[in-house]
Write a structure and sequence with these properties.
The complex is a heterotrimer. Chain A is about 30% helix and about 25% strand. By secondary structure, chain A is an alpha/beta fold. In chain A, the strands form three sheets. In chain A, strands 6-7-8-4-9-10 form a six-stranded mixed sheet, with helices on both faces. A four-stranded mixed sheet of chain A has the order 1-5-2-3, covered by helices on one side. The longest helix of chain A is centred in the last third of the chain and has 16 residues. Chain A is globular and about 50 Å long. Chain A starts with a strand and ends in a 10-residue tail after the last strand. In chain A, about 50% of the residues are buried. Chain B is globular, with a radius of gyration of 18 Å. Chain B is mainly alpha-helical. Chain B has 15 helices and no strands. Chain C is about 75% helix and about 0% strand. Chain C is globular and about 60 Å long. The chains are: A alpha/beta, B mainly alpha, C mainly alpha. Chains B and C meet through helix 4, helix 7, helix 8, helix 13 and helix 15 of B and helix 3, helix 6, helix 7, helix 11 and helix 13 of C.
């Protein structure tokens, strides 16, 4: 069950969480907590439980065991491959969709909602693309539009599913800058990622592989044993033990 | 050629005119979502599946439309639970529809010996529309309009990104179930006028042309509404002039408009 | 004996004998071909083409020309129109197909309702096996011989492509051409079969037999032979029912086919077959896009 946190200076607290589909657990033994204003990188191989964790945090999946405490409903930024590119919506329309989270979805968007959407678009650098159809945007621009949708929800916790995958460097830099701004605003971000190296620049890192392998500050947590347990055979260690990269298995097409 | 004003002056034609206008309203506001949410085949199937029930109701004196509603809703519920709406419908559905058509025609020709009903049920009727048909179409148009206004944003968010829509806390499953039920009910409501086989002429063809001509959802709905009204009225006139059921002329007109729209936008298409 | 007389009575009538022969011939080829139709996911195309050829049928009926000609021309025109319409990017393939098919069915009905045309629409839609001509029997025989030969010749390439299109292409087979050949065969089968079953019901003879046998047949060859047998059996049952119950012949056969599919799908394979290893449901490949199942991390 999801309960309200926040007063005790905790943005998100998970304890003994086990979640899965049709009664069979896919993810077990997850327990961690993060204060407001933290960037948490969620690492793990495909099928390791990252998306399952997000779904449980969003309340879409009823946990099989354990508890979740959240300070408010999280905002979610999904992987862009799952959106329909031929839908007749503009970047602004997509951003406005975020306001549906405020409830009263049966009303048409009002002035305040449109303004909030435009502000979010400006934050991600898409002001000029507000009236461009979503399908006509570049990959990086689409990611930014989806980020704007998440920003509009004004949530204390944001869950981002591989926000930088397949994104051009300029967009990636912009998105990373927005992350730092959000952290400064006291929001907590959980960013699912494949990039082990970039994880080292986060405040906290959570390693999942069917279960929680490790959680903590990257410097202390991301040692070889942890990475091995997290990625198993997907791990390639660079010579001299200076670093490790993971093999990415993506089944959907990317824009590079 | 008969005078177009006959449509408004002759009483039996007036009823047909009202019916087609009411259906066109639904064709616009709901048809847009049929096209956007890929429910074209579903709308056709919902109409066809009711065929045997309609034959039985027709023969036993029960108003077919009301009987068809029950079947339509049942079909919608079944499809939603199977999670198949809009996606690849299986061979099972295709065979179900064949069985419905075959069963219906046997019931009509051999059991009830109401052979004339077959043409009417398959392609619609100009003169045989009843007050109940009009009432049902009016109710459907009203409900569809209200639902489209209230649920449009949700249906759009789900169509664009189902995961994201769920994450926003929208009642995705219920909104989609309502959409399916509305489409099924609308399909049944259109059967008296255009027939079981040509339900898509009202709910898919105008919106498909509109989809080619517009770039936003609002534009799509407005354009679909206009096209549905125009095609319905002109199609009705053609049916009166040629002395054929209304379904076929509306269908031919609708597809020609789609063709024209496709040709007109070919060079500017994205 | 009364029971035997009961069964053999339809065969005493020349008309019913010819109807049964036509349906059996067509059914045997379509029941086998249907395996590939289902495996290659062509059922929707088959349905669309069979509905869309209606104007061709009506025009042939109006002109007094052989229906086979109208059916073949109609199937060709429908296939082309549907292929073009389905390619539209903005509306989507399902909408494009619906536009083409609805327009064609409407056109066919419009032509049929024209005042001075014979009221044969119901026969064109639901079939008229009892009206089968010598020409139809010749066409059906030709279909079985030529179509059967084509299926036999193409059997191994079709199986290879269905199992692993990428690997088959790498081995020099041409999946696109095979698919085209299959579509041509499909159109021809539909054009011949439409005489007996009608535009609206002909799909049953292509889809019901494979559905009936797919959990029971272990190889494509067995599935095709079993499908042919099921189709012939259903034709016999349907004609018997039609004869004795005085129901529409084409529709009765279609219902028999659907019933066979339902029976076949409901009956689980025998434990003996299960012990030998699960029979392949079909050579269906995994869908290219992630399915609707729960998304994994």
């Amino acid at each position: 069950m999801t309960a309200q946190a926040g007063a005790a200076g905790v943005a998100i607290a998970v304890d003994g969480l086990s979640a899965g589909y049709d009664g069979a657990p896919v993810l077990t033994e997850v327990g961690f907590s993060a204060a407001p204003g933290r960037l948490v990188c969620v690492l793990g191989p495909n099928g390791g439980g990252k998306t399952t964790l997000f779904r449980a945090l969003l309340g879409e999946l009823e946990p099989l065991a354990g508890s979740i405490e959240l300070s408010g409903r999280p905002a979610y930024m999904a992987q862009t491959e799952r959106t329909r590119l031929d839908f007749p919506v503009t970047a602004l329309d997509v951003a406005v969709m975020g306001t549906l989270a405020h409830g009263r979805w049966w009303l048409p968007p009002g002035r305040r909602e449109r303004d909030a959407a435009r502000a979010a678009l400006e934050r991600v650098g898409l002001t000029d693309q507000a009236d461009v159809r979503f399908g006509e945007l570049s990959g990086g621009q689409r990611q930014r539009a989806l980020l704007a949708r998440a920003l509009v929800q004004d949530a204390p916790v944001l869950l981002l599913d591989e926000p930088l995958s397949g994104v051009d460097p300029a967009s990636a830099t912009l998105i990373a800058a927005v992350f730092r701004e959000l952290r400064a605003e006291g929001r907590t971000l959980l960013v699912a990622s494949h990039d082990v190296e970039s994880a080292r620049s986060f405040d906290l890192v959570l390693c999942l592989n069917g279960r929680q392998v490790a959680f903590g500050e990257p410097a202390a947590t991301l040692d070889r044993a942890t990475l091995q347990a997290t990625y198993g055979h997907e791990l390639i260690v660079l010579e001299g033990g200076r670093g490790a990269v993971t093999v990415q298995h993506h089944e959907h097409g990317h824009e590079h | 050629m008969p005078s177009p004003t006959d449509l408004a002056e002759l009483p039996f034609l007036r009823e047909a005119l009202f019916e087609l206008v009411l259906l066109a309203i639904t064709g616009g506001v709901l048809g847009a979502w049929v096209v956007l949410r890929r429910l074209a085949f579903f709308s056709h199937a919902a109409g066809s599946a009711t065929f045997p029930g309609l034959v039985i109701a027709d023969a036993s004196g029960v108003t077919p439309t009301l009987a068809g509603l029950a079947v339509g809703l049942g079909y919608a519920g079944g499809v939603e639970r199977a999670g198949r709406a809009g996606h690849e419908h299986g061979e099972g559905t295709a065979l179900l529809l064949v069985a419905a058509l075959a069963g219906g025609v046997i019931l009509a020709s051999d059991v009830f010996e109401s052979g004339a009903a077959v043409d009417r049920l398959l392609f619609g009727t100009l003169l045989g529309l009843t007050a109940t048909d009009l009432a049902v179409s009016a109710a459907v148009a009203a409900v569809a309009t209200v639902a489209a206004i209230g649920l449009g944003r949700t249906w759009s968010a789900v169509g664009f990104d189902p995961d994201g829509a769920r994450a926003l806390g929208l009642p995705v499953a219920r909104a989609d179930l309502l959409l399916l039920c509305l489409v099924a009910v609308a399909a049944v409501a259109a059967i008296p006028a255009v027939g079981v086989l040509l339900v898509t002429a009202v709910y898919v063809l105008p919106a498909a042309a509109a989809r080619l001509l517009t770039a936003s959802i609002r534009g799509l709905i407005a354009c679909a509404l206009g096209l549905a009204l125009a095609e319905g009225v002109v199609g009705l006139y053609a049916a009166y002039w040629l002395d054929v059921p209304p379904g076929p002329p509306v269908a031919v007109l609708g597809s020609l408009v789609c063709l024209a729209a496709a040709l007109a936008t070919r060079r500017t298409a994205a | 004996m009364e029971a035997i007389d009961f069964v053999l009575d339809p065969l005493r009538s020349g008309i019913d004998r010819r109807a049964l022969l036509e349906l059996a011939l067509v059914g045997s080829l379509c029941g086998a071909l249907g395996f590939w139709v289902v495996t290659e996911r062509l059922a929707y195309s088959a349905e669309s083409i069979s509905h869309g050829l209606l104007p061709g049928l009506v025009l042939a009926a109006l002109a007094g020309a052989p229906l086979l000609l109208g059916a073949a021309g109609g199937a060709l025109a429908a296939a082309v129109l549907i292929a073009v319409a389905a390619r539209d990017q903005r509306a989507g393939p399902d909408v494009g197909t619906a536009v083409a098919v609805t327009g064609l069915v409407g056109l066919g009905a419009l032509l049929a309702f024209a005042p001075d045309s014979p009221q044969r629409l119901e026969e064109l839609l639901f079939g008229d096996p009892l009206g089968v001509t010598d020409g139809d029997l010749v066409a059906a025989t030709a279909l079985v011989v030529l179509g059967g030969g084509a299926l036999a010749a193409l059997h191994r390439p079709l199986a290879a492509v269905a199992f692993d299109p990428g690997g088959a292409a790498a081995a020099g087979l041409q999946p696109a051409r095979l698919r085209l050949a299959l579509l041509v065969l499909l159109a021809a089968a539909v054009a011949v079969a439409v005489q007996g079953l009608g535009a609206l019901l002909v799909l049953a003879v292509l889809v019901a037999p494979p559905v009936a046998v797919r959990t029971h047949a272990r190889t494509p060859a067995r599935a095709m032979l079993a499908g042919a047998a099921v189709a012939v059996l259903a034709a016999i049952v349907g004609m018997e029912v039609s004869f004795h119950a005085h129901s529409a012949a084409g529709a009765s056969v279609a219902l028999a086919l659907c019933a066979a599919a339902a029976l076949g799908a409901l009956l689980r394979p025998s434990p003996r077959a299960a012990r030998r290893g699960a029979p392949p449901r079909s050579l269906r490949r995994a869908p290219a896009s992630p399915g609707r199942g729960p998304a994994r991390a």
